[in-house]
Amino acid sequence: MTNRPRADAANAHQYQIYPSTTIAVAQWVRRRSVDLIRDFGVRLNAVAPGMTETPLIAAGRNHSDLDRRNLEKFAASIPAGTTAQPDMIADPVLFLLSPLAVFITGQILVIDGGQDALLRPDHL
Question: Which pLDDT belongs to residue 12?
Answer without folding.
Answer: 59
